[in-house]
Design brief:
Jelly Rolls; Arc Repressor Mutant, subunit A; 6-stranded antiparallel beta sheet; 3-stranded antiparallel beta sheet; 10 helices; 46% helix
Length: 228
């Protein structure tokens, strides 16, 4: 992995892909490319909030204190840490590599230099606002009483909410998805089996493929039920 390859990924996916090319190039130029093995932490809750991390390849597990529970799984194109970088305060959550991962680290010094420019500051704030929108969506999802609808909505969230090319191959285990959705292993298995039987998804090892996005959306919006 090199900076040119990292820029190509970030130009195709996520928040940075929707920002002007000059801004993308400056962020990538200033960032340090790092590799993390599975299970290695980018940062932990309580650590100093030093800069932002952009996932180029692999997977990031977002863990929530105090129980260190998985709250979300981030895919390439995701940028983390901007809220605490803006506030210059300790991290609120932990971020751990769920698979071998390449990451761009925009250090706090470079972040501070870039936000001196008002337009750059606006670009970073857009990432923060998108993360807030996703957090509200996740909270709404967790209070959804119907387990089928809850899972369908969460899969749509993983596919992407903000206009980038939607991901159809999701690298998440059934067990992690169950934790994220707040469902028992038995209930999660029943829901996924129903979706597989209906031709909405296919399930593999640490992977869920979206086969019929329209049907998944219909299920997420209460239009249909797979099982009763």
């Amino acid at each position: 992995m090199d900076k040119a390859a990292a820029l190509a990924v970030m130009t195709a996916h996520g928040w940075l892909s929707r920002r002007p090319m000059t801004f993308r190039e400056e962020v990538v130029r200033r960032s340090r490319l790092q590799h993390f093995d599975t299970g290695t932490s980018f940062y932990n809750a309580g650590d100093d909030g030093l800069g932002m991390y952009g996932l180029v390849s692999g997977q990031v597990l977002i863990r929530l204190p105090p129980a260190d529970t998985i709250g979300s799984v981030a895919s390439p194109g995701t940028w983390l840490g901007d809220a605490t970088a803006f506030r210059r305060e300790a991290r609120w959550v932990s971020a751990t590599a769920g698979a071998p991962s390449w990451v761009l680290h925009l250090e706090q010094r470079d972040f501070e230099e870039m936000i001196r420019d008002a337009e750059n500051c606006r670009h970073f704030a857009i990432n923060t606002s998108e993360a807030l929108s996703e957090a509200v969506t996740i909270v709404s999802n967790l209070i959804q009483p119907d387990s089928e609808v809850r899972v369908a909505q969460r899969l749509l969230t993983f596919m992407g909410l903000f206009g980038e090319t939607r991901r159809r191959a999701l690298t998440v285990t059934q067990a992690d998805l169950g934790v994220i959705c707040g469902l028992s292993r038995q209930t999660m298995s029943k829901v996924l089996t129903g979706m597989v039987d209906a031709g909405i998804i296919a399930v593999g090892y640490r992977r869920i493929d979206i086969i019929d996005e329209a049907a998944l959306y219909a299920l997420a919006t209460h239009d249909e039920r797979v099982w009763r």
